[in-house]
Amino acid sequence: MLLADYHVHTGYTVDVKENVSIEAYLRKAEKLGLVEICFVNHLEFHPVKGLVKGATIFPDQIEEFIDEVEKAKANTSLRVKIGLEVTYTQRFEKNLEAILSQHESSFDFFLGSIHYIGNYAVSPAFSTEFSEEIFAKFDEIKIYQKYFDEVIRAVESQLFDVLAHPDLIRKIAVKHYSREIDSEIYLDMIWRVLDALDEYNVGLEVNSAGYRHSIGDCYPRMEMLKAARKKGIKVVTIGSDAHALEHLGLKLEKAVEKLKLVGYEGFYVFEKHKPRLFKLGIE
Ligand SMILES: [Zn+2]
Ligand SMILES: [Zn+2]
To answer: For 58-79, b where at least 16 C-beta lie within 10 A, e where not — what string?
Structure first.
């Protein structure tokens, strides 16, 4: 099956394995038979500390990242795209807007992510203990609600093409509670997310990293995908969220399988922020 991995990290942050390089990813992608790859690196303002070395690409490194990807295009037959995975934090929305608008035309794709609930890290790549404090403070339903509240704000900011790992909160919540939240409660909460995606014309990522985060599933749950299809959310992308060479393309076939199951005829790829349908089994 021909696939495109639209969520691949190459460096600048400490969560990316040191041995990765754009070149190495491209060789691996060729071996895997991917036809398109989109490199994204983290742009993140920590909700309290702002730009933190090791947790984000710095604005003055963005040109270097663009050059690196541009050079790599010469040595491969793959279609190579470039994007950023942007952690949305409301406090720094204006800063993000300034950076993104300055570089918009050099990028194909902006993924919007929620990695914090208030000041608490949801994806504990950089601060493990911090995420544990959420569970002491709020109950399960409240934690999910708060997460999706942040997601909705991110979508409403209109800074992004696609919403990354829409229910990443499960990365820590499923582990903590040893279960998924009740399906009906989940469905009630995610309708508001889908409304926002629809209203602001933002796409949805099916992220296969959940398989290596030991939840044995993609982000989002099937319930959300099914509902997204019903709602008429057209633009869906797939990504492995690779932070190491061995993550590239991992379980993307599962993401595609889920898309097919709910009736999508393909996924989308981007060029200069314009989505294009990549029909399954055709390209
Ligand atoms: Zn992320
Ligand atoms: Zn990522």
So the answer is: eeeebeebeebbeebeeebebb
- Among the bound ligands, the one closest to the CA of 219: 1
Starting from the CA of residue 114, give the closest ligand. Answer: 1
- For 37, the domain range is 3-279
pLDDT tens for 146-205 read 999 999 999 999 999 999 999 999 999 999 999 999 999 999 999 999 999 999 999 999
The CATH number for 82's domain is: 3.20.20.140
What is the separation of C-alpha 106 from the centre of its chain, rounded to a whole number of angstroms?
Answer: 19
pLDDT in tens, 98-127: 999 999 999 999 999 999 998 888 876 655
Give me ligand 2 centre to Cα 239, in Å.
Answer: 9
Tell me the C-alpha distance between 228 and 2, whole Å. 24
Give how many domains the chain has, as a whole number. Answer: 1
pTM above 0.90, yes or no: yes
> From the CA of 243, which ligand is nearest?
2
The rounded Å distance from CA 27 to ligand 1 centre is: 24
